[in-house]
């Protein structure tokens, strides 16, 4: 396996390995739930926790106890995210509404209570990183960027979802939309990028932090879906994360048991939580991600408190949550709900607002993060000014490597000199020699390989 971790300002991971991942069969978790798929056939579903109701597509009325978080204003905020996704996908006649509908409570809890960011400076160095590994659910992040005051996504941009040259493409792209940390879409890629970011954070913290000054201490969060955990590369990167004990890495697994073809039982029967435990991760199960905000927030706090291993928060959700006829089915995964179903969902969730309408009180609440983020950055900058006075050499190296991404002037010459003197050798030995040269030139490079 070869990994390269970039500075925390960009944090990318490249991973290549050919290996088979061993998985454990998933035992029953006490209650089996049935569902009807988009094609109309009944399917056996993976078990869910006792007391949790997965919406059945054959049900025309939604269980009222599953519609509310217990806090009316929180319900309004969560449903605002849902309906921005629903309305944007509907206008585009294309997209993935189901994932944002199911993950809206978790995303709101994360952005509102835990994620550190400055909406007016998406490149604030010590921000927490958020990676939407399940990139097909891109309207989730676009809704959040708009609500929390990022300049990169306006309401007009949301209305241009999936249109040519828009800032809201069907899968998020970091070069087009500030606030998007990583371009995602190929399932499993984003969680690998998140592992690379967490490696970069750990490396930078070890390099530049001192007993008196904490220059880097950000968390890396990733939301991944069933497709992400099926992909082999996510297994490889997650195994490494456990081995490296990346305590600042928190992966949130959207366990909705639906793929584009129907129930994930068609292709998957493992116990994902047990697999991640075997990697050395802390695993926290949230059996009701539809309405139990307290459990979601407690799980994030528990994950943040664990410093010696990465955390997987397994959140059981309902894809297309709120849709009377398409929730919990593949029909809500990758296509617009349709005019009639959008109207039915508005009625089911008691959403009295027009398409793309955001309640004033929601925007007032979420935009308060602009002031909070600016204050967090100002506090960091004040600390860094003291750091520069006390540790001028470390501060200069940090600014050059991390802030500016500057390259040392002699690195190419060193590689050329190495090549000129090199004897014929196996590629792995040549690669090791090149990495040694680069490691001496770049203080922020991380490399390695599989045990061949």
UniProtKB/TrEMBL annotation:
One of its GO terms (molecular function) is metal ion binding. Gene3D superfamilies: 3.40.50.970. GO terms for biological process: pentose-phosphate shunt. One of its GO terms (cellular component) is cytosol. Residues 76-408 form the Transketolase N-terminal domain. SUPFAM superfamilies: Thiamin diphosphate-binding fold (THDP-binding). The lineage of its organism: Eukaryota, Rhodophyta, Bangiophyceae, Bangiales, Bangiaceae. This is Transketolase N-terminal domain-containing protein. CDD domains: TPP_TK. InterPro entries: THDP-binding (IPR029061), Transketolase_CS (IPR049557), Transketolase_fam (IPR033247), Transketolase_N (IPR005474). Its cofactor is Mg(2+); thiamine diphosphate. The keyword Metal-binding applies. The keyword Magnesium applies. Keywords: Magnesium, Metal-binding, Thiamine pyrophosphate, Transferase. Belongs to the transketolase family. It holds the Pfam family Transketolase_N.
């Amino acid at each position: 396996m070869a990994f390269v971790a970039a500075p925390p300002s960009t944090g990318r991971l490249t991973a290549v390995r050919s290996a088979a991942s061993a998985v454990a069969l998933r035992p029953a978790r006490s209650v089996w739930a049935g569902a009807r798929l988009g094609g109309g056939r009944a399917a056996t579903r993976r078990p869910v926790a006792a007391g949790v109701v997965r919406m059945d597509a054959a049900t025309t009325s939604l269980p009222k106890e599953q519609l509310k978080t217990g806090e009316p204003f929180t319900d309004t905020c969560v449903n605002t995210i849902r309906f921005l996704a629903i309305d944007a996908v509907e206008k585009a006649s294309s997209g993935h509404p189901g994932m944002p509908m199911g993950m809206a409570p978790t995303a709101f809890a994360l952005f509102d209570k835990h994620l550190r960011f400055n909406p007016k400076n998406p490149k604030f160095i010590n921000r927490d990183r958020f990676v939407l590994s399940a990139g097909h659910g891109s309207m989730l992040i676009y809704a959040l960027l708009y609500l929390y005051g990022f300049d990169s996504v306006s309401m007009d941009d949301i209305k241009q979802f999936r249109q040519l040259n828009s800032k809201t493409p069907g899968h998020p792209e970091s070069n087009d939309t500030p606030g998007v940390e990583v371009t995602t879409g190929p399932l499993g890629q984003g969680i690998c990028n998140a592992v690379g970011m967490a490696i970069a954070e750990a490396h930078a913290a070890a390099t530049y932090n001192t007993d008196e000054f904490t220059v880097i201490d950000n968390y890396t969060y990733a939301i991944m879906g069933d497709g992400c955990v099926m992909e082999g590369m996510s297994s490889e990167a997650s195994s490494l994360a456990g081995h490296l004990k990346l305590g600042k890495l928190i992966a949130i697994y959207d366990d909705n048991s639906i793929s584009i073809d129907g129930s994930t039982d068609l292709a998957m029967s493992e116990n994902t939580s047990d697999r991640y435990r075997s990697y050395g991760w802390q695993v926290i199960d949230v059996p009701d991600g539809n309405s139990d905000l307290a459990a979601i927030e407690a799980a994030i706090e528990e994950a943040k408190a664990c410093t010696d291993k990465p955390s997987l928060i397994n959140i059981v959700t309902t894809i297309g949550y709120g849709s009377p006829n398409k929730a919990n089915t593949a029909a809500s995964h990758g296509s617009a709900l349709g005019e009639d179903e959008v109207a039915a969902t508005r009625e089911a969730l008691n959403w009295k607002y027009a398409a793309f309408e955001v309640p004033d009180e929601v925007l007032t609440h979420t935009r308060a993060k602009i002031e909070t983020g600016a204050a967090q950055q100002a506090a960091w900058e004040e600390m860094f000014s003291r750091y520069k006075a006390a540790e001028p050499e470390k501060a200069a190296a940090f600014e050059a490597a991390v802030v500016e991404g500057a390259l040392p002037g002699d690195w190419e010459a060193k590689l050329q000199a190495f090549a000129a003197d090199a004897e014929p050798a196996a590629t792995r030995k040549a690669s090791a020699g090149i990495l040694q040269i680069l490691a001496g030139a770049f203080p922020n490079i991380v490399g390695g390989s599989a045990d061949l």
